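Table 4 source record.
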Amino acid sequence: MDFYTEPERKIEIADRTDVLVAGGGPAGYSAAIAAARNGADTILVEQFNCVGGMATSGMMSHFTDGCDSPLFDEMMDRVHRETAGIFCPAQGAGRHQISHELLKKVLLDMLTEAGVRLKLYTFVCDSICENGRVRGVVTESKSGRKALLGTITVDATGDGDVAARAGAEFQLGREEDSRCQPVTLMFRIGGVDYSRAHLPGSFEHLLDVPKGEIQALAREHLPAPAGHVLVYPTWLPGEVCVNMTNVTGIDGTRAEELTRAELVCRKQMPEIVLFLREYLPGFEHCYLVTSAQNVGVRETRHFKGLYTMTAEDIVAGRVFDDWIATHNWFNFDIHNVEGAGLDKDGAQKHFSARGQYTIPYRACVPEKVDGLLLSGRNISGTHKAHSNFRVMPICMNIGQGVGTAAAIAVRDGVEPRHADIREIQKALNQQGVTV
């Protein structure tokens, strides 16, 4: 292997802040809003031109039913208040359907109103660590290589890039073989006749159409590992959001593999459109409108925290003493790591639990790294538990709790692991979060 040695250089410290949030997806923008509203000077760093992550640049179709969250409700209330004169909702689109462009605006409004300082078009490329403590991050942008320092750093990058570069211990993918859930490139199609269209929205949504059962037809006619039908209504007349591209065996922490996934997905897209035209009523004249800015990565690193969430915690509806995210519910949405459809360890229609569950603060605190909190799908949890808490509303819930905890830790001058959980929960109660 050949190497190039970079000349030593000084990096400008471009800014300092109380709470530094890396990543502007649901777990990141929620953490930033919560930290700022709790009095912390807060910076949010995002690599793209907008915040929202998979809900905007990733073009996800909808927010799942995943939690009771005052911050989520506030966001969706604002989205629906601002639709008048801008968008005409399509028949069948509901409260949780995502208007990608409008959501970009609403989230930027919420962040700026909270006083969050935004750094868009900025990629976090390294951690700044001293004696086992994260002091900030190194970024790259059109402005060059810069350092940002934060009293507390929140890693909301999804893949846990900050934590990984700080040396935090993690498990990639599932425990037995490190395989991760497949990746998907979302896209939208137009020309759909809503008056006749049926929209299969889950792997277990079996639909008889004139030429057979639609999921069986997909497995027969789409190029593997594609082979299921997941289509959802949008806010735009005649448009449908498609969640059908599929690439297995991808490590989403490697740019080379993300490039391969992008190429495979884009080859699948025309064949998916042709399949829908031929087999799904109401789609006879559909056509490609637009596609996401990035592939959707469901799973990569699971970091080792002070506690590891398990599937049993979720099924039991466990309420932890150190809760920071409450009233969560979902299923084990494990996409098949070997092909299309639901994985053998997943459970959707047949999922059952004793009640709603909470996320413990301990699962958001890396075991051996200080100055750092985890937020979103990168928290400490098993492969199966992750398939439940990875969904966007629950990541928003986690983000609100983690952002609040970061602000309290800064206020009290303590490391995140020593933050007073009762003070954190008191602050969350004041934001409308209940057990």
